[in-house]
Amino acid sequence: MFKDIINLDLKENTKALIVSDIHLQLPITRELEMIQGSLVSRINELSKSRNAILILNGDILELWENKDQTVADILDGFSKLTQAINNFIKIKSHKVIYVVGNHDDIISRSSSEQKSLHKLWGAEICRTLHTYIGKDKIRIEHGHESDSYNATSNQQEPKGKKLVQNTLPILLKTMPSLFKGIGDVVNRSLLPSYVLSNLAYKIVAPICVPIVLIISIFLSIGLSDDRYWKAAVLVFVLLWAVFLIADVLLRFVASFALGGGSTYMKKVDKYQKEAKFEKIIYGHTHQGLIEKRNKYTYANSGCNDVVAFPKIGWMGLVRFNRYVQLSNLNIDNSKKDYLKYHQEIVPLVE
Ligand SMILES: [Mn+2]
């Protein structure tokens, strides 16, 4: 039931909707309910086309974080989405293709999970989807193999999986105020900034600053020596400067060390030299876009998930806001410019 490569011939006037990185898991939160509603309406819209394909480009299900949840559990839980997909495949010329990602990689190895996916969503399952439009060879993959932290080729368990399953739960348990929500940070070079901003806004500013100030003022009055409160203020000014400088330095180091950004794109360029294609459609990074490279076009289907973006906050210290990102790529092979990216960003009120 699982194929390494599916070759797909697109009939004339075919529309394809490509979505990825939804990380569906139970229980259904307010954000997941919003995402489900949006997906249902996009699938219903796609259903109106006679020839239509729904391409689920990996990490649709979150099977790393919750090892006890099965494909069937999650698909049954998201009943509105399952219903919409069932209505979609009732039409004979419609197809659902599930490309396996890293967070749902178990599907590529478990035939019972493949059966659930086939039975409940009517999906054909693969690692790579190949199709042609005109002279263009288009390769559709989740994209984790071009990410050294999540590639499966070199080692048994990718580092990303160990991080999600072993390291992150410990950090969340011991220091929740610093690490909660870190998985929503899209840009890897900002991961240290996220921890630093939590340290500044959740611990230093509301707890440490008032306590030290009160004690120093108390000592200044009690001992009639104003050097105490002056020393405390000086320490905080220095600390503020340290935060600003550390943020810049850590961003710089992380941009090289954590494998995102240009490091990732170099791998994709290298991959194009081996696999030869005119267009590649990835997911995985959660950063949706269509970009012309030297010899090919790189497109990314973004994500349908909660994301955290930085902004400059109080006294120039970076802070993060959470949003729901709803994105997809569309293929319409009746058009010359057949590939389009669309995204919506909905702010979340905490
Ligand atoms: Mn992924």
Describe it.
The protein is built from 10 helices and 12 strands. It is of the alpha/beta class and 350 residues long. It folds into 2 domains: 250 residues, Purple Acid Phosphatase, chain A, domain 2; 63 residues. A hairpin with a 4-residue loop joins β8 and β9. The protein is elongated, with a radius of gyration of 24 Å. The two termini are 43 Å apart. The protein binds manganese (II) ion.
Top CATH class of the largest domain:
Alpha Beta
Number of helices: 10
**Which structural class best describes the helix and strand composition?**
alpha/beta
What is the makeup of the main sheet? 12 strands, mixed
Termini distance? 43 Å
Which small molecules are bound? manganese (II) ion
> Average pLDDT across residues?
94
- CATH homologous superfamily assignment of the largest domain: Metallo-dependent phosphatases
Write a short abstract of this structure.
This protein is of the alpha/beta class and 350 residues long. The chain has helices at 30-47, 71-77, 79-89, 106-109, 111-121, 159-174, 176-179, 191-222, 227-257, 261-275; strands at 2-8, 14-19, 51-57, 94-99, 123-133, 136-140, 279-282, 289-292, 297-300, 304-312, 318-332, 339-347.
List the topology elements:
Blueprint: E1 2-8, E2 14-19, H1 30-47, E3 51-57, H2 71-77, H3 79-89, E4 94-99, H4 106-109, H5 111-121, E5 123-133, E6 136-140, H6 159-174, H7 176-179, H8 191-222, H9 227-257, H10 261-275, E7 279-282, E8 289-292, E9 297-300, E10 304-312, E11 318-332, E12 339-347
Parallel strand pairs: 1-5, 2-3, 3-4, 4-5, 6-7, 7-9
Antiparallel strand pairs: 2-11, 5-6, 8-9, 10-11, 11-12
Helix pairs in contact: 1-3, 2-5, 8-9
The structure holds manganese (II) ion.
